[in-house]
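Reply to dn_fold:

You asked what the input looked like. This is it:
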Amino acid sequence: MVEDIVDPRRLEPPYLLGEREMLDGWLDFHRVTLLLKCEGLTDAQRKHRPITTSLMSLHGLVRHMADVERGWFRKCIAREDIPWLWDYTGNDDADFAPIEGASWEADLAAWHAECDAARAAAKARGLDYKGERRGQAVSLRWVYTHMIEEYARHNGHADLIRELVDGAVGW
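and this is what came back:
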């Protein structure tokens, strides 16, 4: 059982920071939380879907968040004309399934690359910068806030999945 792991990669931002530093800090905190939930498991454990009514697995959550990073930061904010990482034609859940033949190393590398690209896209712009999604303007500030919410929501899923996979709790 894992409880209250102190990991130098996962630190809460200080209480007093500027808005940008606070947003960056909390987003990175949640990124590392997802990573920690996946560490120390076998490939089969990361791919396991312990909730029979759900396609979610830890591996699938990493794939999902890679495309979420890509969509909000690269496609919306940086306005890059790039494809999604997975082909969603006929399968709205292609990031989650099928996953049996997916490579953890490749998908983890894709997630890291998307996080790095997201940081670069954000760093080059102010919080009031407006990207575009589905024909509507969206500020970088909104994207940061949404991404923190998105990770927090999925990290809650990851908490439950990890506990069901091997009994580990914490982080």
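Residues 140-166 form the longest helix (27 residues).
Hope that clears it up.
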